[in-house]
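Internal ticket - ligand job 112, S-adenosylmethionine:
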Amino acid sequence: MTLLRDRDLAHAFDHASRTYDRLTGLNPGYRADLLRSARRLRLPGDGAGLHLLDLGCGTGASTRALLRAAPRARITAVDASAGMLRRALAKPWPDSVRFLHLSAEELTTAGE
Ligand SMILES: C[S@@+](CC[C@H](N)C(=O)[O-])C[C@H]1O[C@@H](n2cnc3c(N)ncnc32)[C@H](O)[C@@H]1O
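stdout (structure tokens):
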């Protein structure tokens, strides 16, 4: 198995970001499964008062599923790949959703 360093991983997804939405769009179950997973969280009150973290949000497909499952939650969507995030940010989002360009590792040490 090849271990990718953070930067290599982000670069790999920068590259993949060009075709990511097209490829996942060709998979008929992709977005439906994300939505089903988000709904399985059974977040109460449409997510009112909750702050959700979408770690590895990519181009925003999982963020959109969370938003649909919990439209009243605040959502912070995080990704290490600038290319994936650029595509996410090009989509319309309510003010309750924000995107951060960070790796999971940076996120976990940010509060230290
Ligand atoms: C397979 S994509 C999934 C994207 C999105 N969640 C979706 O469902 O379409 C995985 C995403 O996780 C991000 N990622 C992987 N490892 C990460 C890490 N350590 N920190 C932050 N983002 C990471 C990648 O850049 C990529 O955008």
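Auto-summary: The pocket of S-adenosylmethionine is lined by residues 9-10, 13, 34, 56-58, 61-62, 78-81, 84, 103-105 (CB under 6 Å). The chain has five helices and three strands.
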